[in-house]
Design brief:
7 strands, three-stranded mixed sheet, about 90 residues, single chain, two-stranded antiparallel sheet
């Protein structure tokens, strides 16, 4: 499988190994807009991968690192599971 490297600055150090895959729907108008947002340092949000509708897969954050989550819906849940997640 080939990945298109599109590094995001929005990560920190992981303290555990991932054992959960989390799929997100961005709701953005285009994949390009989503990629731009996930790579914006001021957004402080990213994912490990971005899968485009045409099947291309972008690698934003290496799995050895923890991607930043910008939402606060379930902060306690996110904090507890963020080290274990690999997000796409």
């Amino acid at each position: 499988m080939e990945f298109i490297e599109a590094p995001s600055p929005n990560f920190d150090q992981r303290t555990g190994l991932p054992d959960i895959l989390v799929l997100h729907y961005t709701g953005m108008q285009t994949g390009e807009a989503a990629l731009e947002r996930l790579r914006d340092p001021e957004a402080k949000v990213s994912s490990h991968y971005l899968v485009e509708e045409d099947g291309r897969i972008f690698l934003l954050v290496a799995e050895e690192r923890r991607r930043l989550a910008g939402h606060r819906r379930c902060e306690r849940c996110l904090h507890r599971h963020r080290d274990r997640q690999s997000g796409a």
